[in-house]
Amino acid sequence: MNDINLKKKLIFKDNILVTTFLLLQILFVVPALVVCFTIRGVHTFEAVIWHILLTVLFFCGYQFTKFYFKGEDIKSKKNVIFGTNKFFNVLIIGLSLFGVLVSAVTVDNISNLSGYFKLLFFENNSQLLSQVKYEVSTGGLPGYLKMFGYAPIAVFMTICSYLFFCSFNDAKTKKKFIVIAVIAGFCSLGKVIFTLDRLPILSVFIVLFFYSIRIRKSNFKIIALVVVFFIVSFFLLKFVTSTKMNNMSILDFLSLYSGLGIVNFQLLLNNFSEWSYGLNSFFHPFYFIGKAFNYNIHIPAAQDSFWGGPQYFYSYLYMDFGYYIFLIVPLLGGILYYYHNKVLNHNPIAISIYFIMLFCICTTIVIPIFRAVEFWLMIIISIMIYKMISFSNYKTFL
Can you give the residue ranges of every domain in the chain? Predict the structure, then answer.
């Protein structure tokens, strides 16, 4: 394949991360525009302007860095996976199953499983279910164990990244990766039954959507798997949203959350001035690390907000950096292109975390996943998987 055809083939991959970010940010402000900027009695015009301006700056940072790397050639050779560590299957599948087990045991410590399932499937009591969910999130097993609930998600997205971006030395190795991806995918959805957390469903949707629009020639079994995952994920998302939000539909929930996100951003612009210098965004995991060692780190929080204070990407950055957000956001756009340039040049570490990064981007319109310790655990697991695989045709990350 010559370089011109290769670049045409990779044009989708070259833009998917920033395109996803931009589309989500545009859709996020639609509820505010529909009601002429007034939501819950709060005039959100300033917040909408900030949101649009910050999105433009992010894209400018991305494009500037892209221009800087313009002269670099895209390498024409894909990574080839030759094999894996002899303990690969046991460790990776074990991690996926352990994530579901941790979630189940946590619930059982708070409310025995039989009672929980009865409440979940046969009793229409969303208030009591919310109370159980809160107790599960704050109690049960220690935090350093509960965070492994995201292990199957890390395995699923990492293995799927390799399946998409890499070639395989033999069909047997590729089949092994597909089997692991299927097991980890169902484990990711399985943990949702115990945690009622929508983010694992989102992670599966992201991978499935990405694969479905890239399918060219594939056998019937692969297409059937994608369809089954789509159906299970959709009905599970509908069930969880309806259970937690008093029969509210998925679209109603997204509209409500985005509208309140803009409202709370406006309230921050009006009232907030106690900057946290990263502790509300990228350094937020240090709060939980400090808590584990009985050290309390003070993190300023919004005092004036609606509905428990749902914030999103720009809100947390503003709480951290104030007006310096106008410098931070284009820098983040530049970092995104730098990372993706490594993906296009087949760096295996960059490839291994590709879907995790896409997952991170998709959470910018809700509470960003990078604020959680679980996100960094997923990165560690992904790199661990990379260390257990034999590659060819790559250079170091930096």
Answer: 1-73+249-344, 87-247
